[in-house]
Amino acid sequence: MENALNYSKLSKMPFPWYGYAAAVWLVAAEILMFARIEPFLTWFTPIQWTGLIFLLDAILVKLGEESFIFRRTREFLYMLFVSNVVWFGFEGYNLHLQNWKYVGLPESYWVRAVGYVWSFATIFPGVLLTSRIIDRLGVFDFVRFRPVAVSRGWRAGFMIFGFLSVTIPLLVPQEIARYLFAFVWVGFVFLIDPINDRLGMPSLLRELEEGTLRKLFSLFLSGIICGFLWEFWNYWAGTKWIYTVPFLTEPRIFEMPLFGFLGFLPFAAECYVFWQLSLWLRRRLSSENRR
Length: 291
Known about the structure:
Number of domains: 1
Order of helices and strands: HHHHEHHHHHHHEEEH
Structural class: mainly alpha
Distance between the termini: 48 Å
Low-confidence stretches: 1-6
Shape: globular
Strand content: under 5%
Mean pLDDT: 92
Radius of gyration: 20 Å
Number of helices: 12
């Protein structure tokens, strides 16, 4: 009953004007892309994700939170920066793993660079704001069970597994590394989440010890939602990525092999653990600068 009353109050809050503008943006860009009008054809993916992020932010405001874009602007800009840093790291992995490539890129190096930075900046906001909306709606509030104690031994084991998962693919020959990409997509969760917990930051392990997996499930759902949108918008774009994974390449949904959608689940969790660690680093640097 209490949740119902809360949502009743939240429903009376005005929907921000930029949320309506973002919805129009998304529809208009879709039409212009199908009409093959530039720059909407070439820049379709970052254009759509920019519109979606404004829409997600407006939904959060409607649900009673502060706007990330307009009220927590420094944090939002920092999220864009972290998103780029992390994804360029994954691009570095791909130089060795060769699991995807880009086609239809602009000829100019500088134009391509702008496209990369713009596109990569939208990744973390898309995943994390979607997950936050799911949290606010209480979709997984029912997920409760007896708390699970995670010993130091298990935590150390998780970190060792995570470390090996993100290092071994870089150390073996490329013809072998191409088959190990799945370990990269789960490894950072096992490596970083115990560190976040030790640093006092929100962590998935801590939720497990509290008898819930609400955040993990909201991240998984966010990963599926965002993954579908990434692949849907990418499929029609003039500049896009295609996958070159060595097995289970069929059937496909858009450009993505069907089994590949499972990768969006741990990837969303990776975005979360990276973000929590980056928040700790930002606060640490801020405290050092004030001394």
